[in-house]
Automatic annotation (TrEMBL):
The gene is tig. The lineage of its organism: Bacteria, Pseudomonadati, Bacteroidota, Flavobacteriia, Flavobacteriales. The keyword Chaperone applies. NCBIfam families: tig. Residues 268-398 form the Trigger factor C-terminal domain. It catalyses: [protein]-peptidylproline (omega=180) = [protein]-peptidylproline (omega=0). Belongs to the FKBP-type PPIase family. Tig subfamily. It is found in: Cytoplasm. This is Trigger factor. Residues 1-146 form the Trigger factor ribosome-binding bacterial domain. Its EC number is 5.2.1.8. It comes from the Bacteria. It is an enzyme of class 5 (isomerase).
Amino acid sequence: MNITRENVDALNAVVKVDIAKEDYSAKVEKILTDYRKTANIPGFRKGQVPMGMVKKQYGKAVLVDEVNKLLQDALNKYLTEEKLDVLGQPLPKPQDTINWDADTLSFEFELGLAPEFEVTLKGKEAITQYNIVADDKMINEQVERIQKQYGKLISQSVVEKESEITGVFKNEEREIENKVTLTLDKFKGKATEKLFIGAKTGDVITLQTKGLYDDEHELMHALKLGHDDIHGLDIEVTFTISEINTRELADLDQDLFDKLFGKDVVTSVTELKDKIKEDAEKQFAQQADQKFLNDVTEYLVENTKFDLPASFLQKWMQTAGEQPLDSEQAKEEYEKSEKSLRYQLIEGKLITDNNIQITMDDIKNHSREMIKAQMAQFGQMNPSDEELDNIAARILSNQDEARRISEQLVSQKLLSLYKEKANFKVKELSYENFVKEVYGHK
């Protein structure tokens, strides 16, 4: 067997594989001999079928199968030994005819080669890294929410601005009938609020679903419908009031603090607010980190310049998926996935250049910490090592879950790298202002 390569350009190459008859003839002969022992052909006893007949019936198929196996093994070995970084998979060049009786069989494969490039993290323009703080307004609102949650319900005769209203949303045509408890602050605009103020138990209020809530999820909950049913929904619904209550705020005392955090963990309003601030800012830090990670990713994709073997990749995409694509479909698919492919190459380069490694111990330890955090949410504060190991083993037996955790760890290590080496500026702001600046929400 002989393998040669011709580089068409920096991103494309053609590999030629010459397979001599002696490379496969002995294996083909052995397989056919085994076939002869078990062949069931009418007119012949088992094991007594003439070899010529076996070769005539099975010889071509066995030969083609063995040559294909040789080709795949040879190509994989060649790519590994030559340390060729290829994109996609080698594509066989079409051949009009193959003379399977020839002493030497020749096959050619197109390769798409990964580009060589450098990644620079320190750009001219600094990327914003947000430091989101829980301001007094947010903390006080959270304290009030806690007081309401643990407060006492007091029945009312008419709806007021702060009332909790229980009732049934209904639309017979769409078969909607759902009992909910709502508050007026969730509605969009003041007009809906005015329809409720002063209403009594038994009153029926007619509402339009379009523009009823700012958040579609609120409407999904109110009508008990799926996202596809809610999107663009513009119908009339009725709301029949069955109960009106106001909530007397719970006292900020030791009994409430113990309910929230355990005995004597928090002993004053000041400590309560400090705990709320600490917990909130931990969550904000995760959100800010994800935003920073996304922004650095975007910067790297936009500013790391290199060419790709586009024609090869489009040709490869035509046969790579579950369903074959024509050239136009493959081009469209390539254009949609090009950005993702570029980042995969950039990420791979960063991982290699900075020796980022994820070990099995890293994955196990990360799994244990995730499990501990989840168990703590259900009041299990001190699970044993054996318990954690057993749960982690079950989780990691799922390859998809193990891969997901590995990807999380890679992201964490890349985030640390970006914080160490990227050009960024820190901007401190409240969560409310962060949402306005980043997502444009008021």
